[in-house]
Design goal:
The complex is a heterotrimer of chains A (73), B (341) and C (463). Chain A has helices at 6-12, 34-52; strands at 2-3, 16-19, 60-61, 71-72. Chain A is of the alpha/beta class. Chain B starts with a strand and ends with a strand. With 341 residues, chain B is of the alpha/beta class. In chain B, 50% of the residues are buried. Chain B has helices at 35-43, 57-62, 65-74, 89-104, 138-153, 179-191, 273-277, 285-293, 314-330, and strands at residues 3-10, 27-30, 47-55, 79-82, 109-113, 128-130, 171-174, 221-226, 230-232, 248-251, 263-265, 299-306, 335-339. The model of chain B has no long low-confidence stretch (mean pLDDT 90). In chain C, helix 7 (328-344) crosses helix 8 (358-373). Chain C has 8 helices and 29 strands. With 463 residues, chain C is an alpha/beta fold. The chains are: A alpha/beta (73), B alpha/beta (341), C alpha/beta (463). Chains in contact: A-B, B-C. Chains B and C meet through strand 7 and helix 6 of B and helix 6, strand 22, strand 23 and strand 29 of C. Strand 7 (171-174) of chain B pairs antiparallel with strand 29 of chain C.
Chain lengths: 73, 341, 463
């Protein structure tokens, strides 16, 4: 799940969560120039692919903004 | 002595603006504003709403630190009153966090929202007065809120009879039968298909068992899903903008992108201007096709599934999830990416 | 109160087995009904348990033990003699009855007077009776009475029973005529020897008292056939197993099955009739509110509740006993083993109980999840620890997959108990720093059996 309101996703138990930058644009960032926004969108999807390929025990955050380890919640 | 209260409202009820003002910063105004005036009339002389603090929903809900900012703006109030937020998730979360922050700092606060608002889980030690579902129930919701505030002002304890959500205060009672007999009854209920009966809820929203990971995304069929209500321009199938009772399926076959003007979001829960300017901000088809072309995923599923996640009844949404999972599994999809707004 | 018509635990399905054995005088219309489903050949040979229940309505102390018309007279010398041995300097036998302004403090174990015949007849096998499989033949029960040991032992946590007042509905002992045994250890006696002597003594006294009923007309007779551990052909009723987890933490925190601790063991399946004959005896004295006394293994609440519906809307499929290990890997093993055993019994569902607090909750949660993973519906009995004001999270450890949970009450909720005229078990209540009979404010957890993990109690926490 790609979303901005991470606490809601955690409370409903979504197992794999990728935080986004805004409610109105889950796979976007209008503050960026178009090419960079597309690059951010791509990074979000790649993070999503990483998430679905990772075994998780419960709600886990996957951060697209760095190559970080997933954080279990 | 009159209780000095500060009322928290979102940008809409404070009269600042609609969704376009959802990012507005916290600010304070003297006296009661909007529904606060009606609330003040109901409260009479015992309580005086000396100020109103307002903030944009997006700003309040997306940054946890904003709640403390808002609580600070409320200053030395005898009581902070937040809402009613009805079923608005962002507003409810904001109200709950503000109330929780005030109580955690030693003050008194009460939040008001519908029982299914996700904000109820974030109210901490602050009481939550149950409102009706929508702003059409403002009068009754304010009446309940005024009643609860009145009891707080009088130093009386609140209970479920005051429409206060009994969030997790559990008291001992003597049941009519012993636990062993109740256990047998519960067991028979479960065997006969009741999947929810229990005396202690594990959590309000149930548990989700994580699916096993996809072994190799490069060979996986991946689907795009959204609750951002992205539909073909004109909303030909009339997807609801709120409290959706349906979901829809649209084909992506042969498409590399979603043009502005071809698709639109009919979501009633946020401003759709930015999404309509570039629908990929809701459904990332362009990036998904790139990954497909590069062999990072096996194939993009031909359809996308969509609903509007705005005030959706929890049970309805859970039902959609079950249906989507069933459809996707039948279609041979291994992984799904759901964008949420 | 006169004799009552019998009930049987299962309806006849194919034919009626005759009731054999000695006939009892029947002036008041005592009826013995038939046995269960046509049993398999091997179970035929095991035979039923016949429970002869004798009602106790009053107790008194006297020279000789007798039971007549509901009055149990406890022979003082014989009772004290049950505890004779080098480890105890002396014991004192007292009686308390329901409704009295009386309190028992430092309660240890409670045992229902039961015997299978003169000299015990094999009751409490492995501890009092000889080591042999039980669960069949005659069993005489004094219903409405209990032998209660009270006093200090190491690792025991102070437990309170009030025979009247607000705490009375919270303890199984408050509704019973209690034969209370207080004791003084002999100088230099090892505490373990003190504990053993008390335990065997209580069992001996329980059997001795029940023996007084052997020549009396029972109030009720119940015939309990052996439980089939397999689904009979054509039986469509859901099969339900009672899983009972037992403490096994060594001295003063152990539970004995046929006289032995289950520490280090796996799950075993017993016939519920074996528990009737005293196969499970408590040696565990911690956690008063979460205590499973021997009395409640003899009168297992979950088994009783399942028997009441047996052959009606479920089939009682056995009782699984398993230890509560104190180490995570073994906890997972035993929980999975319980689930596997239930699957082998053809169970459709199981009710899981524990003894103890948070540590035991982990065993409960793991077992429930293990059952659900095998598609067996699981219901667990949990006490809550929501804090004194009830606002904390109810469960210390909750299952991840299973969600059907019964509440046995909030451990932490405070109780105010009035002063009482008489207190037994000790002169002081150390945890309150007061005289034992004084007015008290204590958490619910201090009342003996108040959060009964076996499901005896009516207490539950609710919003």
């Amino acid at each position: 799940m790609l979303c901005n309101l991470v606490p809601i996703a955690l409370s409903v138990g979504a197992p794999r969560i990728v935080p986004t930058r805004g409610i109105q644009f889950p796979t976007g960032d209008p503050s960026l120039p178009p090419a960079e926004e597309r690059a951010w969108r791509r990074r979000l999807l790649e993070t999503a692919l990483r998430a679905v390929s990772t075994a998780v025990g419960g709600p886990t955050l996957f951060d697209a903004s760095e190559a970080a380890e997933p954080v279990a919640s | 002595m009159t209780l000095r209260a500060v009322h928290y409202l979102n940008q809409f009820f404070a009269g600042i603006g609609g969704e376009e003002a959802a990012g507005s910063a916290p600010a304070r105004r003297e006296g009661a504003v909007g529904p606060g005036r009606r609330l003040q009339a109901m409260l009479g002389d015992a309580v005086s709403i000396v100020a109103t603090v307002h903030c944009g929903d997006d700003r309040a809900a997306s940054d946890p630190a904003t709640a403390r900012e808002i609580a600070a703006l409320a200053g030395h109030a005898d009581l902070v009153i937040a809402g009613p937020a009805f079923t608005s998730g962002r507003y409810g979360i904001a109200c709950a966090r503000v109330a929780a922050a005030v109580v955690a700092a030693g003050g008194r606060a009460v939040a008001c929202m519908h029982g299914e608002n996700p904000g109820v889980a974030e109210a901490g030690a602050a009481p939550v007065v149950l409102s009706l579902e929508t702003a059409r129930g403002m009068e009754e919701s304010l009446r309940r809120l005024a009643h609860a505030v009145g009891r707080i002002a009088a130093g009386e304890a609140l209970s479920t009879e005051d429409h206060v959500l009994s969030r997790a205060v559990r008291g001992n009672r003597l049941a009519d039968r012993c636990a062993a007999e109740r256990a047998v009854d519960l067991l028979l209920a479960r065997l006969h298909g009741d999947r929810a009966a229990t005396e202690i809820s594990m959590s309000d929203f149930g548990r989700v068992t994580p699916a096993a990971p996809v072994a190799d995304p490069a060979h996986a069929v991946v689907a795009l899903l959204t609750e951002g209500a992205l539909v073909p321009h004109g909303n030909p199938d009339r997807l609801e903008s709120a409290r959706a009772r349906r979901w829809l399926r649209y084909s992506l076959a042969g498409r590399d992108g979603l043009g502005a003007g071809e698709f639109e979001s009919v979501h009633g829960g946020f401003s759709t201007v930015l999404a309509n300017a570039d629908p990929h901000r809701i459904l990332p088809l362009d990036a998904a096709r790139e990954l497909e072309a590069e062999g990072r995923i096996g194939r993009l599923h031909d359809d996308y599934l969509v609903t509007a996640g705005n005030g959706t009844h929890v049970a309805t949404a859970a039902g959609f999830g079950v249906e989507w999972a069933a459809e996707l599994r039948r279609a041979g999809v291994q992984a799904a990416i759901l964008t949420a707004t | 109160m006169g004799p009552v018509i019998t009930l049987t635990c299962a309806l006849p399905r194919a034919g009626v087995a005759a009731f054999g054995g000695p006939a009892y005088p029947d002036p008041n219309g005592m009826v013995l009904t038939a046995t269960a489903l046509a049993p398999r050949r091997a179970l035929d040979r095991v035979g039923p348990l016949r429970r002869f229940v004798h009602r106790v309505d009053a107790v008194s102390l006297g020279d000789h033990t007798s039971l007549r018309d509901g009055l149990l007279t406890v022979g003082a010398a014989a009772a004290e003699g049950c505890f004779a041995g080098p480890a105890l300097a002396r014991v004192r036998i007292s009686l308390v009855s329901p409704g009295e302004s009386a309190r028992i403090v430092k309660v240890l174990d409670a045992v229902e007077p039961r015997t299978k015949g003169r000299g015990g007849g094999g009751i409490f096998p492995g501890l009092l009776g000889r080591l042999a499989v039980q669960g069949r033949g005659p069993l005489h029960v004094l219903r409405g009475a209990a032998v209660v040991t009270a006093g200090h032992l190491p690792r025991a946590q102070e437990a309170v029973v009030d025979m009247s007042g607000p705490a009375a509905p919270l303890s199984p002992l408050a509704a019973l005529h209690c034969v209370v045994v207080e004791f003084e250890p002999a100088p230099g006696a090892a505490w373990e020897a003190v504990g053993d002597t008390l335990r065997i003594g209580a069992l001996r006294l329980a059997a001795h008292l029940a023996e007084a009923a052997l020549d009396e007309v029972p109030t009720v007779v119940v015939e309990l056939p052996p439980t089939s551990l397999q689904r009979d052909p054509g039986d469509e009723l859901p099969r339900v197993v009672a899983i009972t987890r037992l403490q096994c933490q060594g001295a003063f925190k152990d539970v004995f099955v046929y006289g032995a601790s289950m520490a280090g063991g796996l799950a075993v399946c017993l016939d519920p009739n074996e528990l009737e004959d005293g196969a499970v005896v408590s040696g565990q004295y911690g956690h008063p509110g979460l205590k499973n006394p021997t009395y409640l293994f003899q009168n297992h609440p979950v088994l009783r509740a399942l028997r009441a519906r047996d052959a009606v809307d479920l089939r009682l499929a056995g009782v699984v006993l398993a230890p509560e290990p104190v180490e995570q890997a073994r906890k997972e093993l035993v929980a999975a083993h319980c689930a596997r055993l239930c699957a082998a019994l053809g169970a459709d569902a199981a009710i899981v109980t524990k003894e103890g607090a948070g540590n035991a909750d982990a065993d409960l949660a793991l077992t429930m999840d293990g059952l659900e993973a095998l598609g067996i519906t699981a219901v667990g009995l949990f006490a809550e620890m929501a804090g004194a004001d009830g606002s904390g999270p109810p469960l210390v450890v909750s299952p991840e997959r299973a969600t059907a949970v019964i509440s046995t009450g909030n451990y932490d909720e405070p109780l105010r108990l009035p002063a009482v005229e008489r207190a037994l078990g000790g002169a002081e209540l150390s945890l309150a720093g007061t005289a034992a009979g004084a007015a008290l404010e204590v958490p619910t957890a201090v009342v003996y059996g108040s959060l009964s993990p076996l499901g005896w109690g009516r207490l539950r926490a609710a919003p």
